[in-house]
Amino acid sequence: MAAATLALPSLSINATSKQPMNRTAKMKLSWTPYDLELKHTFTISGFSRNTTPVVLTRIEYDGLAGYGEASLPPYLGESQASVIEFLKKIDLSGFTDPTHLEEIMTYVDGIAIHNTAAKAAVDIALHDLAGKMIGAPWYRMYGLDKQDVPDTTFTIGIDSDEVVREKTREALGRFNILKVKVGGPDDKRMIEAIRSVTDLPLSVDANQGWKDRRQALDMIFWLKEKGVVMVEQPMPKMELDHIAWLTGESPLPIFADESVQRLTDVERLKGVFSGINVKLMKCTGMLEAWKMRNLARALGMKVMMGCMTETSCAISAASQLCAGMDFADLDGALLIGNDCFDGAKLENGKIIATDLPGIGVIPNRELHFARD
Ligand code: MG
27 C-alpha to center of ligand 1: Å? Predict the structure, then answer.
């Protein structure tokens, strides 16, 4: 009897442990370029485009595979070629345990100064793999309720009144908040076109497009009257003194996007912006995004989760750490026609993670991962 009782703890540890048993297993990183086809031509202040290049990554280890993604909109300054060149430099053979995320990502980050999307592709695949080894989705390991996420915004680009009204109608019944790209000469016309269709709350993103702080403030007061609830990057990213003045005077919260890239940017933005927009492709992935979220909160700042045009791979990764944030802008996978992953889904206007371990994704077509 005593012997049986004593035996139980070690038996139960063996039965439930998801730790890697094969200490000689090696991580194998591979990748494949992929072009996202946008459902609509996308125009923001300064750019128009129909496709977005990405590089998908896979890290295999001991019979498991984790997936990641680098999304490469032109303004990030990375390309499929530069991502692949970076990935070729990575040698994971010295690491014995994929769950040692801090150690591995410190090495990856040290390979080059920039390449943040390429680093995110490695970080996301590692998180997916580690979560599968541990047997849990990341929102659970973060201690979050996956349902407690803000409504995702659905983005409407700068366009003719007719197209703006058509896109707004498309969003009705699916989304509870819309995001409008402003920063051009037609801001009021765009807002009025949307208001002719719906009275849903709006967020606006000027993408640095407003150049004069007093005109920007007048516009923000007008936007508030029109049911706008927040403003993203109103003025050029380096004009922190003007933005701090604007934030002080503004009746709406002002979020940094272009002005914030990584963890080290956050502290100097306290008192300049009301909050920060965290994006995996800017900040090298989930490990640093989680730190940025917590630092912003500790500094008394608001925080939102944003995205690029991405497949459900990177969107699902972002959805894992989105609960409890102030805003979510995770419509990236909904804007493309050839999403190659099944993962987080739109439910009642929110992007909700699956219950699968890791980042919660499964490829929905054959992808040819290789090391060249
Ligand atoms: Mg933005």
Answer: 35
Model confidence over 18-32: pLDDT tens digits? Answer: 554 566 789 999 999
Is the Cβ–Cβ distance between 49 and 294 less than 8 Å? no
Sheet of 327-328, strands arranged across? 153-156, 177-181, 202-205, 228-232, 254-256, 275-278, 302-305, 327-328
**Ligand 1 centre and the CA of 307: distance in Å?**
9
pLDDT in tens, 199-223: 999 999 999 999 999 999 999 999 9
Question: Distance from the CA of 229 to the center of ligand 1, in angstroms?
Answer: 15
Q: Give the CA dihedral 177, 140, 307, 272, nearest 10 degrees.
A: 80
- Predicted pLDDT of residue 47: 64
What average pLDDT does range 79-102 have in this prediction?
96
pTM of the full structure = 0.92
Q: Are residues 335 and 236 in the same domain?
A: yes
Q: Is residue 319 one of the residues assigned to a domain?
A: yes
User: What are 291-317's pLDDT values in tens digits?
Assistant: 999 999 999 999 999 999 999 999 999
Q: Quick one: 259 and 117 in the same domain?
A: no
Determine the distance separating the centroid of ligand 1 and the alpha carbon of 4, expressed in angstroms: 61
Which residue, 109, 139, 169, sits at the end of a domain?
Answer: 139
Alpha-carbon gap, residue 178 to 168, rounded angstroms: 8
* Together in a domain, 43 and 168: no
* Domain count along the chain: 2
Q: What is the mean pLDDT of residues 220-240?
A: 98
Per-residue pLDDT at 250: 98
d(CA 207, ligand 1 centre) in Å: 6
Q: How far is the CA of 364 from the centre of ligand 1 (A)?
A: 29
User: Do both 114 and 181 map to the same domain?
Assistant: no
Instruction: Report yes or no: 64 and 50 within 8 Å, Cβ to Cβ.
Output: no
Cβ atoms within 10 Å, residue 276: 26
**Residue 291 and residue 152 share a domain:** yes
Identify the domain containing residue 33 by its residue range.
2-139
Dist. CA 205 → ligand 1 center (Å):
6
